[in-house]
């Protein structure tokens, strides 16, 4: 039962991966299979041609006695058997050359097909992930995406699809050789099929479950290693200061050792059937020759057939060995296919079109009209019945204790989340899922955790654009507004084309913050959001940054989430949140004397 169960498991996975193909890809897949069948037939012809060549070489008189050979000899116009035998030898050599060229062509064809599927799987999966709602990413680890897009896509495309096509190729060749043996002697062919079928079926059934187990271990510990690397190098400053090198190195050593030991077991188990079959086949051949010699049987009359069997065995044995290895590799890769299938199915079902829509006009005010927000599957509201207005070109501060709902307000304002109840209105136009991308074109965002890519300063300011598409004058205007232009032009060796380094490691904290402010200003937004953007800075740097921000307030609408209340001292209005409710609003001086929550916040910072 186990071989039958294994066959259906393999058939299910093959059907799954074929279901991911478009109509054009299915046609190309069919063409690949046709070429593989034709290659197998030519392979069979190459093996079959050896028997008549050996026969006439050992007995030239056969040319006259065999009707087909006699007709070919007559058609050739040659006058001696010797020349005809030479012609047959040249024809055999050309057939072998053609067969090998065809094999190379078919290999290139299905390799190209596989690599293009890997390419499509990868970029469509990337497209699918980035098109998902913001909430999806709040429950994911970034290393999972790296692993899936690089490691798992490669396993599905190379270790499963490519290996499957290689397996099909070898099965066609093995089938063609066995058909040739049937033509020569159906009894011998039946014996070969029975022995090898039972042998391979039993060995594969024995190793299948172990190989799947090795595949799961490989998947799980590769995932752990990706997360570990992400944590170690993502927080390198804390690792160095807190002397965490030994901890991370120890974990990496443990995971790496488990993967390496698992790979040894996996590789040995993959080739185990090959060596068992090779031992049985060669031992049987040696026994057959020994019996023939021991009984003084003359094998000269059987030389052509013996040559055919030797040639067939020479090709069939490595072919069956490859079949065994390929089955092992496919079994291991099933784990990755099963875990990635749903994401791939979603990614490949309908192309994701991110439509470029015009901005929503913002001329008067933004209104939170009875806004309540509750995260999916949560029972408690994060925000409840929030009502306030943000007039255009005003500066609004947001204050509150940790967990009061400040960040959720900003996420709603930025269109990353939509209210559970109530409305967010921009000049009386409600924000919905179908227009929030239009609204986001009005927004410049400066986060608490600075994010810079390992690219040029210009590419970091004009975020999301290729270097050759960047309007450098617009970049310079944004840098000037963020008051970072003199530093870039005077102190950086290549100016705006200087590499920032990974996460902007070559720049100071204040310089990185100003680059991010320039990025927020690059699209000339109507609304600027500062999400505790100066919380990690010293007082002097923070004061300089805030001075630059307030110079923008006459031209832009600014919302500032405060880490230190001094950063919102000059705002037109301050919104004070407590436990998901808007506790108070007013100017700094008024709140500092009249509001209990604000006074508590102020007292904690003194």
TrEMBL record:
Q: What is its main location?
A: membrane
Q: Which domain of life is it from?
A: Bacteria
Domain ABC transporter: start-end pairs: 366-604
Keyword terms of this UniProt record: ATP-binding, Cell membrane, Membrane, Nucleotide-binding, Transmembrane, Transmembrane helix, Transport
Q: How does it sit in the membrane?
A: Multi-pass membrane protein
Claim: Membrane is one of the keywords in the record: yes
Q: Which GO terms describe its cellular component?
A: plasma membrane
Residues that span the membrane, as ranges: 27-50, 84-110, 160-183, 189-206, 275-293
The family database entries (SUPFAM superfamilies) matched by this protein are listed as: ABC transporter transmembrane region, P-loop containing nucleoside triphosphate hydrolases
List each copy of the ABC transmembrane type-1 domain by range: 30-331
Keyword Nucleotidyltransferase attached: no
What PROSITE patterns does the record tag this protein with? ABC_TM1F, ABC_TRANSPORTER_1, ABC_TRANSPORTER_2
- This chain's protein is named ABC transporter related protein
Q: Which GO terms describe its molecular function?
A: ABC-type transporter activity; ATP binding; ATP hydrolysis activity; ATPase-coupled lipid transmembrane transporter activity
Task: From the Swiss-Prot or TrEMBL record, state where the protein is found.
Answer: Cell membrane
